[in-house]
Amino acid sequence: MHKRWIGLGAAIVCISLLLGPIVSTERAFASTYPSWSDVLAARKNVAEKQKAIAQLKDIINNLEKKVADANAEAERVGTIYQEAQQAYDEAAYKADQLQAQADEAKASADASRIRAGQFVSELARAGSINVSTSLLSDSTGADNLLSRLGFASIIASQADGIYQAAIRDQNSAQSLTDQATVAKKERDVLRDEAEAAFQVAQTAAIAAQVAFEEQQAHQATLQAQLATLVENRRATEKEYQKGQEENGTAGSDLPPGAISSKGWARPSAGYISSGFGYRVHPIYHVMMFHSGTDLAASCGTPIYAAHGGQVIYAGWNGTLGNYILISHGEGISTGYAHIANGHTFVHVGEQVSTGTHIADIGMTGGATGCHLHFEVRKDGKAQDAVPFMRNMGITLG
After folding, report:
1. 208 vs 26, 329, 391, CA distance in Å?
2. Distance between CA atoms of 90 and 284, rounded to whole angstroms?
3. I need a surface site. Which of 8, 21, 68, 221 has the fewest CB within 10 A?
4. What are phi and psi of 193, to 5 degrees?
5. Model confidence over 204-250: pLDDT tens digits?
């Protein structure tokens, strides 16, 4: 197993710790998070107030640390996942190419065997002539006999070359078939490794999301409670909620992507800046396999779910940056990469409809400009998104 997998077991342990509850060293409050009555009660005693202030700060700091740690771990294992997926994609592509070459070589070898057989058959017919009988029985047969013997001589001189060509074609076909078999075995190993890395990265992404949601759910209240104690103000939960309602802003839903008659949507605006397959990487300047189709558009451009399904990954994915993977059933999934920081609007396990605004375009990870890296996968293997989406009534680019 590749050395990049060392530490994945430790990662799972680390993630489980990140998912655990926040525990303070001291408790002036009855539960993990203080109630407003706890805060107001602490105001009555200077010592209790100072203790409550320290513990509120401790809870806030722990929340921030939990989010930071979870994000760091999600980024670390997300990078491993992306590397594993890239290795699998390249191996699968190589195996397909070798198999196609092997099939073509086999067809050529079969044709060579047929040609060699025809020459051998003709030579056998020419070699079966009884020279004496032909000359005695037919005074005019000498010319025909000489002609056939001359033809036999030509066949004999060419037969060996044709036979050798047939052997070479057969050996070439067998060699390519063997290479394809080895490539498929390597592909299958890498697929298993990619699936294992995905599971760990998915768990880490969930942990990061849980930590962030926990922080978002409590941070504002904790800060308000802390201000109440530090500024020695008398504030109640009712007043706090009223302030939240007055200051809050409701989110607005953007219109969905255009949906075809086959129920699929264009994932974003933009033109195709890079297609599927091998290319010279714009950053690393080496030949690398490109598993998606890049749609260039300005940062902040909405990204829509190409089809309805379940979000099975939402987090960091190495050089792909912030990444979403949606499973649509029947082995089909779509991926969306380079999402802007803070602009992922879905979470793992969420069901989304076709055309749902799931994120905004950014340039996170390895990107030279704002664009969406859009992927289509069948049973985990990358497909060319352009013809696939065309069959679904969507033209990319």
Report:
1. 25, 26, 37
2. 17
3. 21
4. -65, -40
5. 778 777 777 777 667 767 766 776 677 665 555 555 555 445 444 33
Residue type for 286, please? V
Place of tokens 């803070």: 342
Please name the residues in contact with 204: beta carbons below 8 A apart, sequence gap of 6 or more: 11, 15, 70, 73, 74, 76, 77, 78, 315
Task: Determine the Cα–Cα distance for residues 303 and 364; give it in Å rounded to an integer.
Answer: 14
Alpha carbon distance 168, 159 (integer Å): 14
pTM of the model: 0.51
Structural domains present in the chain: 1-248 (1.10.287), 271-391 (2.70.70.10)
Structure token digits, residue 381: 């293997």
For 25-78, the DSSP string reads SS-SSSSSS--HHHHHHHTTSHHHHHHHHHHHHHHHHHHHHHHHHHHHHHHHHH
